[in-house]
Amino acid sequence: MELFDVYPLYNVEPQKAYDCTVVDKNGIEYLDLYGGHAVISIGHSHPHYVKNLKEQVEKIGFYSNAVQNSLQSKLAKKLGELSNYNDYQLFLCNSGAEANENALKLASFKTNKSRVIAFHNGFHGRTSAAVAATDNLKINSPLNAQQNVTFLPLNQIELVKTELEKEDVCAIIIEPIQGVGGLDEGTTEFFVALEKLCREFKAILILDEVQSGFGRSGEFFAHQYHGIKPDIISIAKGMGNGFPVGGIMIAPHIKPSYGMLGTTFGGNHLACVATLSVLEVLETENLISNAKLTGDYFLSEAIKLPGVQKVKGRGLMLGLEFDFEVSELRKKLIYDHHIFTGGAMNKKLLRILPPLTIGKKEIDKFINALQNVLTEEKVDL
């Protein structure tokens, strides 16, 4: 049997990793400024994380949600404390797509409506409703296209109001900072008005914090920069530091009932320990503060680089926009300078999503390498 060939692959095979460094099968070390799509939050192979997972797997790794698992309650309490959402409820699943799928389903249950408002260049996953709310025709099959989704531009609140006045919208789903789309974001004025309109028209406001959450933006959640409280928050990626974990945080006015949502693997013992370990390291090592400070330093240095048109994002969820497509630039950074970076739907944007443990030394290494590629090598990009 062969693999189903859907991924264009770089000719690099990582075999081990620590902190912000990935080591390939030839022993070559790479600076990881992408974290496997923002998944690595507390650094590769963090000793606290590794220790806890080893100890847990020796006890029990999995059992179904038909029995009690006190690790879930412990995780919910810790997450509520650190995120300042003590009064919310937690449903655990396995991925960001599944989190958004459950968020949209729950919104439809709550409102008894089916239409969704999403935004241009948004990305919410690859499952049925989540991919239908993703603004990318290439990954939407005819099956997905049956969903009732309206796409609107960011920061045009009157267009949102016009759609809500039709009174058939169950949910508005939005990323506080667009990830795959290219680091664009709504203004505080827009988010505050969005929250108000959702209350007025009884639509559920879903904040997709799958990529931006767990401290990446320099706040626990990126929407907290705007002083709003959504009805549902979807979480994943950096939540498990590489272990597959996802979830939704649900406002107290949305009441559960048996069988409403469900999952086989979500909230298993290992997933809970992985997430608890991440939360403990975020707290004890002040990584959210580090994300903000290191991100600010990155922004101040990156804007000086030749060819950089714009620097986007917050904390360690960053993008450098050029006046050329960056695919060849990324290859040169990988093969010539041994640095991982990311791309986006915006082909002119270089995405930077390193572990939150990164410091100025690593940022300087990247800045120097990028300057070398852009000036000394005079790449025709």
What's this model, at a glance?
The chain is of the alpha/beta class.
Which descriptors apply to this entry?
globular; 17% strand; 14 strands; 7-stranded mixed beta sheet; 4-stranded mixed beta sheet; 11 helices; alpha/beta
Notes on the protein architecture:
With 381 residues, the chain is α/β, with parallel strands linked by helices. It has helices at residues 35-38, 47-57, 70-83, 96-111, 128-132, 157-164, 188-201, 269-284, 287-302, 327-335, 360-376; strands at residues 14-18, 21-24, 29-32, 89-93, 115-119, 149-152, 169-174, 204-208, 232-235, 246-250, 308-314, 317-322, 339-340, 349-352. Helices cover 34% and strands 17% of the residues. Strand 11 (308-314) and strand 12 form a beta hairpin. The longest helix has 17 residues, at 360-376. The radius of gyration is 21 Å and the shape is globular. The model has no long low-confidence stretch (mean pLDDT 96).
* Euclidean distance between termini CA atoms: 38 Å
Question: What is the CA-atom radius of gyration, in angstroms?
Answer: 21 Å
Number of strands: 14
Biggest sheet descriptor: 7 strands, mixed
Low-pLDDT windows of residues = none
Q: Going across the major beta sheet, what is the strand order?
A: 4-10-9-8-7-5-6
Shape: globular
The mean pLDDT is 96
Q: Compute the number of helices.
A: 11
